[in-house]
Amino acid sequence: MINLTINGLKVSVEKGTTLLEAAQFFGFPIPTLCHMEGLSPYGACRLCVVEIGEGPKAKLVSSCTYPAEEGLKVRTASRRVVKARKMVIELLLATAPQSKVIQDLASAHEVRQQRFRQEYEDCILCGLCARMCKEQMMANAIGFRGRGEKRSLGAPFDIKNEVCRLCGGCIYVCPVCMLRCTYTEPEKAICGGCANIGPPCVEKEKFNDMMCYMEPCVACEIRKE
Question: What gap in Å lies between CA 189 and CA 91, rounded to an integer?
Answer without folding.
Answer: 10
